[in-house]
Amino acid sequence: MQLLDEDFIRKLDVLSVVSRKVIVGRMKGEKRSKRRGVSSEFAEHRDYSPGDDTRFIDWNIYGRLNRLFLKLFYEEEDLHVSILVDASESMDYGAHNKFDYARRLAAALGYIAASGSDRVSISAFSEGVSETLAPFRGKGQVWRMFDFLEHLSASGGTSLAAACRNFALQNRGKGITIIVSDFLDEAGYEEALRFFVARNQDLFVLHLLSREEISPELTGDLKLLDCETGGETEVSISGALMKTYKKNVGTFCRGLKNYCGSRGLGYLFAATDAPFEQLVLNYLRRIGLVK
Amino acid sequence: MGFINGLEALIAGAAAAAAVVALYFLKLKRRDYVVSSTLLWKRSLNDLAVNSPFQKLQSNLLLFLQLFLLAAAAFALARPVMNMRARKGGDIILLIDTSSSMNTGERGATRLALVKKAARSVIAIMPKLDSMMILTFAGQCTVRKPFTSSKADLGRAVDQIEPGEGRTNLQDALAVAINMGRSRGLAGRENQRILIISDGGFEDPAKLKVDGHLTSTGVRIFTEDKRSFDIPLQFMSVGKSTRNIGITHLDTRKTGETSAQIFVSVENFSDAAIEGGLSLHDRGMAGKGDEVVSALAIALGPKASAEAKTSRVFQIPEVTNTLLELRLDVDDDLASDNRAWLPLRKPHRAAVLLVSNGNYFLEKVLAPDGDSAHQFSVVAPEAYSPEMQFDVTVFDGWAPSKLPPGGHLFVGAAPPVEGVLPGEVIPNPVLLDWDHSHPLNRFVDFSGVRLARARHCKLPIHARVAVEGDRCPLIFSISEIERRIVCVTFDLIDSDSRLNTDWPFRVSFPLFFSNAINWLNPEARGSAPALINAGGPITFNLPAEAAAATITDPRGKEFTVEADKERRVAFGKTSFPGPYLVKVKGKDDLWVAANLLSRKESDIAVRESFDWRGSPISGGGAAKETPSEVWKYLGLAAVVFLMAEWYVYHRRSR
Fold first, then answer.
1. Containing domain of residue B9, as a range?
2. Is B209 on the interface with A (CB under 8 A)?
3. ipTM, interface predicted TM-score of the complex
4. How far off is chain A from B27, nearest CA to CA, in Å?
């Protein structure tokens, strides 16, 4: 499966990943860091102390106030972008397959980050972190990412909490984490996302559902089989049931959005039949993930 | 409430319920469907279970609906009945037309068959508490079944109605029906109604004599306690065909002493022109011959056209005792009016006896002239004997002490009859008036007749005055069982041989005596008529030596009819058109022809309504559509629907 075509990749060249929380990287990248360092971008003033480098004394302020102040500048650092892709069996669903959509999204975001000299790592999770692509930097390495994503498969159940805990333990550094999932976990999503909130991580939640999950067109008496758990639920489709189901879908999505919003986490919902290009080029900009 | 088919419905309902429940659970085979996650589905089911307590009902709604449908069907099959104590039963008086027009062919059946079918349908839907009476009517009204609630008996009565003939006399039948309804209503029964099933081929009832007030819809009966109740009239028309041509008029006239002419009219009542033939056949006195006397072709235009009716004349050179038959050879839907019969009777030469001492005028007027119709003899009064066998005896100025049976004409003498009391002589009586309807006065004009004297006579109550004078009756007649008497209360010549009146010189004189001889002639007295309308009575007098008469109808059925106290015979079973043979001991056999000869019956176009006191009583052809219970079809449709619904659902679940 070709995740991204060449025309679309060219459009991604102008984008870059944005972190709302400027964080520290080991290498000098293209992102402003909150740390004060040597760069051309003025940050702030502080009082002069004996022994400070006199090259950074702001003589204009001395002329006005007859006091000595030092100019401080932002340190330019690199950004670590971690993309978590839900590879549970529930993602392999829908006419516009959720798993394929998630992989394409991960590929686009990974390409954008790599193009901006950011460090990119991609992990697939189901009941835990199942596979991880070692971090890479630069466009020259994106092929590894495409290759990794193309060979991923959706299997196993969903345990968001376990996967996020494992990821958090393995990635103690700061950076941007993007989770691409349907969040259909019986245990819920709160515990999982709390790991990122506690670490003050810059987290973006990309919530994917297929059209068949949002507005199922079912009739009659059915035995619903959960593809992950194998659980059976007997339903007799009626108008009232469909209405309640759609209401619950809306409640589910709003609940996740509100949780993310109240904790400063980025959130974007997308149906898998939404135009992919529009999602990446427009909607991701709106939520501030890319620019 | 009760159930007519309670046990059967219970068994059927239980068996069907088991089948429905079994089928329902078979239908619960669910289709497997893989979803990404049942998380949200389970939440939705929980929400429904919590928020809507009737979800379990909804999930089994189909089962409950089917069981309800089944219960309703079983309930209907049990035919529940409720005892309604407050309601009283009603009465239906069914009048069924059995006239000749009801024999009209209607696509393989007859109108009478359609009428019987309509009657059966009325019986079928008759409410259980109601009673019905069945009358049939043609020329006469016959009670087929008195009031009864038994539908089986009523149905049998209808089945036994045979095709009839004759004209439609609705008036008499209605009078009978209304009186029946009145009696029942006064006895406490409610809701009487009269239903007429016919093709409408009758005269609109008029001047009905019933004990009630005629309303626009029926009759209103008033009770003694000043209440009233209505008996409505209803009309159900049957039939469609209009194709008929028939003999509508038949008459005969003497053209000489022994010759006669026969007039016949034929009319087309169809919407199309018809051609055919008209023939006259001599059946002979025995009625078994078939000699063609004359035949001709006829062509008639459609109804209401100028060519729709035609008349023909047949010449009979010599009248003999025989039976003639007219036949119409056409292809139409009613055969009853295609034949007519005409008995010919050789004129009877009456034997006339004049008892007189000599009376030129009487001898002249009574003497036969050439080939006269009667024989004539003269005797003197002293030579007269009652045993003399003459048909008519004329007494001139003299009366015997006893009067034998026969015809008697008294001139200038009072007949020795109880109640006739001769009185004083009236000088110069003036002739005031005469009874123009009296057979004696047919074509007679007494104007200008002058009299010198007349004798006053006190008359019995049954005497009929033919000519009235200013102070006394001048001519009267008495008709008794075995005698007919005519009395002229004045002499023609007085005892001095002088004229008492100028009457002998007037034209009315011979005409009167000719009428008198004919009236006194035994052939006119008490003999059966040659022609009657089908359904009309055959009446005649039986001679003293005969105890009864035998009448054979056209179908060969014999009836023995006895006379009443006055030696009068009346036979009414003549609704079947054809020749009737009357046999009386001591007398020659006579044919009496009962013919239809009715434009009303021959015009077989169905009438949808008839006029009743200016308002129409309409039928609207209701008999063409017979009401029938439809619950069986609804039940069958429900079963088919259920089976189809199960089939479709089962197909979808695969």
1. 2-83+632-652
2. no
3. 0.80
4. 9
